[in-house]
Write a structure and sequence with these properties.
164 residues; mainly alpha; Bromodomain-like; 2 strands; DsbB-like_sf; membrane; disulfide bond; cell inner membrane; 6 helices
């Protein structure tokens, strides 16, 4: 059985399309299903955006395939680390869940930027709540799988020797 060979440029573009699709699902869940994102959800969206922009830049630039592959994989793995924190918070016993914090808008207006970033990356009690599942996995668990898949897809481009 032969694998279908596609150019690294098309592969990077497909990675970008996947990231745009993930952001669209997040927007759908927020604006249609009325699921308010917590600070860790917002951090994961920013990581998906950064990963997607990395894929787009690699597709447009079409040079330095290996450098882009590693850079994008690092972006995706950074997002995965945020997702791991989120999944961990969701599996804490109720008595160990941190207290809920203020909304992101309030934090941005009243807290120093460093404190806001720290809260966005560590999460609050809001982040421990599971609002939605699919096949028994929460949104952060699905996002973790997506980040790991994106990192793998990016690293595949490191060894993809097909024509540009």
């Amino acid at each position: 059985m032969k694998l279908i060979k596609i150019s690294s440029r098309l592969s990077f573009f497909l990675g970008f399309v996947v990231c745009v699709s993930l952001l669209a699902v997040g927007a759908y869940l927020q604006f249609v299903k009325q699921l308010e994102p917590c600070p860790l959800c917002i951090s994961q969206r920013l990581a998906i955006l950064a990963t997607g922009l990395g894929f787009l830049l690699a597709a447009v630039h079409n040079q330095g395939r290996k450098i882009y592959a590693v850079f994008i994989a690092l972006l995706a793995l950074s997002g995965a680390s945020i997702s791991i924190r989120h999944v961990w918070l969701q599996h804490l016993p109720p008595e160990e869940v941190p207290e809920c914090g203020p909304g992101i808008e309030y934090m941005l207006q009243n807290f120093p930027l460093a404190e806001t970033i720290k809260l966005m990356l560590t999460g609050t009690g809001d982040c421990a709540k599971v609002d939605w599942t699919l096949l028994g996995l929460s949104i952060p668990a699905w996002t973790l799988l997506a980040f790991l898949t994106l990192a793998g897809w990016a690293l595949y481009q490191f060894w993809n020797n097909t024509a540009k």
